[in-house]
Amino acid sequence: MMTLSEVQKIPKVLIFGNGPTAQETAGQLLDLGYEIIEINPAEDFSQDISCPATGSSPVQDYMEKWGTLANNPRYVLFNQTALQTIEGFAGEFQVRLKRDQKEWIETVGAIVLAPELISTGRFEDYALTPSNQIMTLEELNAAVCSSGEGIEGKAEKETRLKGLTPQTYVAFLVGLKAEGNVLDMARTLSLAQELGRKYQSQICVFCRNVKVAEEGLERLYQACRDEGVLFFKFDDEGPEIIRSGERVILHFTDMVLSQPFELVPDLLVLDSVHSLSEKLQGLAVSARINTDGNGLLQPANVHLLPQASNRAGIFLAGPGKGPLLPRTGLEEAKAAALMVHHFFQGETLENQQREVTVDKGLCTICLTCLRFCPHQAIGWSHRIFIHPLACQRCGICASECPMDAIQIAGYADLEVESKLTRFRQKWQEVETTQPKVVIFGCQRSAGVAWEEVQRSTFNVKGHLDFISLPCAGKLDPDYVLKVLAMGADGVVVLACPEENCKSIYGNTYAHGRFEEIRDYVEETGFDPRRIRFEYLSSNMVWKLKEIMEEWMEELGGMINQQSAA
Amino acid sequence: MERIDLKKLDPEFKHRVAGELGGEHIKKCFACGICSARCPIEKIEPEYNPRKIIRMILLGLEDELLKEEFLWHCSTCYTCQESCPQRVNFTEVIFALRNLAVRKGLAPAGMAAAQNLLSQQGRMYEVGDFENEKRQEMGLPKIKGNPEDYQKLLKK
Amino acid sequence: MNLDNPKVLILGGGIAGLTAALALNRLGIPVELIEKSEALGGMVRSFCCKASPVCQQCGACLVNDALKMLVGAHNVDVHLQAELKEIKMDAKEFLYTYSRPGGGGEGRAAALLLATGFTPFRAEDKPQYRYGLLSNVLTGLDLERQLRETGKVIKPSDQAPPQSMAFIQCVGSRDLHLNHPFCSQVCCGYALRMANLIKHKNPQMEITVFYMDIQSFGKDFPNFLNQTRKQIRFIRSIPGEISAGDQDQLIFTFQSDDGLTSQKLAADLAVLSVGMMPGLDNPVLSKMLGHPLNADGFLPANPDVSRPEGIFSAGAVSGPKSISRSIAQAYQAVEEVAAFLSKRSSV
Questions:
Q1: What's the ipTM?
Q2: Domain residue limits at A82
Q3: Residues of B with CB under 8 A from a CB of A
Q4: How far apart are CA C191 and CA C50, in angstroms?
Q5: How many A×C Cβ pairs under 8 Å?
Q6: What letter would DSSP give residue C231?
Q7: C61 contacts in chain A (CB < 8 Å)
Q8: Does A3 fall in a domain?
Q9: Ordered structural domains, chain C, with CATH
Q10: pLDDT tens digits for A291-330?
């Protein structure tokens, strides 16, 4: 098995993206001394610089800086290049790239995925087709913002605005068909203000909720109102849209007056659907980089904050995770750069210093471990190979392995067993009316709650011992049965709440195994009420106390009844 | 209710109200509803609804609004103004609306009578011999009306 | 101070300060952390887990992860109950002194990281909600503490569980009258997550949310909001006041959904979703550091602001923000510090 010191960390970083986040990540990492390969799937970098109100002025300041990246000898850029596959492990990824018909492989130590999202106007959702009087937010943005000089089609887009006068009405439909986001709202507010000032038209914004949860947006919203922009809010999908020839008619009821209105806007602006390119979605699947329920990067898991993916060495930044303001993307670029820096030069984390071994004699290369690993840290050739840098020592593989061939130092099966043996010796010396219980708990949740309880006053009705696991996913069904066989009266398994597991699904596996154990327990004649599974986080000390005080007392009653019977 | 074409209403009305003394902040309203929730008049007369009045201004329902008698029902308790998180200063908006209404000749009949009293007497309540006798009995000085001073002020 | 291994001074030991300290430590950069209160963890330490039953990604538990990791951080010097007394720039260093009970200390740092956090809006400053006068009116923070410590929600008046409760959003925020023309960004998140948690534990409870605009948070927010709306009543107006009802109940007077009349709602418990206001020490820090405050009273992190070199910030000190944004900013700030220090040493 390769040890941590033998692992190669090639000090090259591959950055994928076509916008400000990717550029800024490249700039920061160059400053920190790394070699950068930047892969841009598009022809040029996205000039999608929003109006000043949404934080574009910092972005504009950066554009000059990004222009100089090409002069840096440690930087190389490939435009119009696709990222086909990612092979290998943290420190030594083989990335297959394709440009025109040429394919080649770059070997890098770390990867940052910082794509922009693809925005397509919601014509289908609104049952509309593009016309002269209908624009998307992005098109309007390009037409209005002076920083969009040189944007393709800017002149053409601008002519569509020429018809705007103080007598005309512009209607924005934003966040109606689906709950909106802060980027679309920031753009809407900026553009509403711009159009109002430039053409003195009456601007009407139709939305569900005005999104102002970013610095400066509440002020912008207020400025819009003060300058005469009208806001119509809805709890549902908003105005009914009726097509009559070329005209689009909006029918809606004003919530404040409960009065039905009609409006035929001279210009209608639609919001867009923002999604990750299909190619990237495919890459995420093939490289087993977890996405969220909407096909965007980074699933809903607080342990991945700020910029981590489930795979060591692969980081995520920018709107690929969900629409955000440009200046937030820049924040994320720096955070991602730091995570990369940590990866290469940071101190090795305590858990990664633990040795993981695979007993060649027991391993049958069934590949169960490989399939279960949430971090894609396992590979195989003629034997199983657990990459010491990619492996997070959660122990799910160890617990799933049908041959118990995998052991993690500090949590090895024999170590757990010897703890249980010590417990048995201790129990043999205590009186039997008080229940003897062992808690298996995830060290980051139950372990912390346990320590907090120890520091407070509590009144436990029995003998309680705690065995810490690196992750509840390390729980082997054998442990529970062994504990009961050794004479314990009860066993509690504590895992982090769903979608809160540092190993993504260790808690779910633990729960699944626990349900199987319950069947065995019943078959072997134990009362299944003696074992209990709970989701518990580190700040749920009240629940641990409840288990310790109330449940233990119930258990005491149960076993005394049974022995009396 | 009949559907109104928004374009038939006057989008300038809100700007005109904002140009009136007291109406400067009318457009800041974001319809939180606190003013109507606290208004004591709304409790006895639901048609008098500050938030609704503001919305009518913003959407341009000028004629419908200025002809309403309830514009004159505001008791000027200032609760709305004190509670408004956007400093719309609604009590003063009511004053602005009243001025606009009067200019359009839409003041209620009682206003004209009150105006006359003011310009003739310089006060809302006539002080005659009966009142002055009572005052003397209580040891208070007589009141002489001096409407000329008041009329001079009005002329200014 | 070892010029080859320059030190960073961090003010504030909440989630942002801790995250930054750990991130710096991982790079081998020594840290001195000064925390005003008696314990580390800041405000987040009193927040509850909102899993109902699935994790709601509030991030509150992450402070415990940070505290746990701090145990193994060998180059982080923490001083509790400590306050910065004086600080000045000398050549390329900050010279500082701090005080604490039983004697303070002094030191030199190459960079300063502000992570002093925020102050919750004082609900007493909205007297129409009678916080402090009616016992069953709570703030969002009171509710967090209750849920964290006991796992239950109870009425302070009689310690019994409420049958109904109502949240009022935007208390103290989005308010020109109070001079807080900003959204506090986190209140919709904490209120709706706690509302879901309480409903999950007490399916019979009637929960109402008074709001103006619901802000997005977390991943998959549209789905979250849809599900929430099915079991919690949303009323789109803010109550004018809370008055006392019978049997310690609370009466909320508000504009009805149809906008045409005002109505009253009776509920057992009121929760005021108070916003995030500037830290009380911001003016003092601003003066001490020559770092201007922004219009809202925060110490902005924006690079547009001309602030002295070598000062960085993370978290709510620069404006309201969520736990996840505070963590991201801590990383951003540490990256900036690392770049700053390496530039200096190469000069």
A1: 0.96
A2: 9-117+276-345
A3: 1-7, 11, 14-15, 25, 27-31, 51-52, 55-56, 58-59, 86
A4: 10
A5: 189
A6: H
A7: 302, 445, 500, 537-539
A8: no
A9: 8-45+60-117+279-346 (3.50.50.60), 120-276 (3.50.50.60)
A10: 998 999 999 999 999 999 999 999 999 999 999 998 899 9
